Amino acid sequence: MSRPHRDHLESAELSNEFAAVRVSVDRRGNSPRLLVEDIETGASILLSPIELASLCLAAPEDRLDWLRVGAYREERSPVRRSALTGPGAQS
């Protein structure tokens, strides 16, 4: 279901038994980004096109490490240190 959201952005709400999120396109910055909001907690993130493309290229085991809600909250793996090092990483 699509509906107007704050600042007249089109948004859609997606939910299942584990989570509920609202997604919309934010055009207020220099370039459009995807705004993803957790309906339960109010937490949100803005994702650029390069970040979204990176999600598409992530390995299945990487995506499993991202699960942090519902039944998956307690089963999560710690963030791998290697993911925090490399080009562009800050100490």
Short description:
The chain is of the alpha+beta class. 16% of the residues lie in helices and 31% in strands. It has a 5-stranded antiparallel sheet.
Order of helices and strands: EEEEEHH
Helix share, percent = 10-25%
How are strands sequenced across the largest beta sheet? Answer: 1-2-3-4-5
Number of helices: 2
In terms of quaternary structure, the protein is single chain
Distance separating the two termini: 43 Å
Outline: flat
Question: How is the secondary structure organized here?
Answer:
Blueprint: E1 2-5, E2 9-15, E3 20-26, E4 33-38, E5 44-47, H1 49-57, H2 60-65
Antiparallel strand pairs: 1-2, 2-3, 3-4, 4-5
What does this structure look like?
- The structure is a single chain.
- The protein has two helices and five strands; from the N terminus they run E-E-E-E-E-H-H.
- It is of the alpha+beta class.
- The chain has a five-stranded antiparallel sheet with strand order 1-2-3-4-5.
- It is flat.
- Residues 81-91 have low confidence and may be disordered.
- Strand 2 and strand 3 (20-26) form a beta hairpin.
Characteristic key phrases:
single chain, alpha+beta, about 90 residues
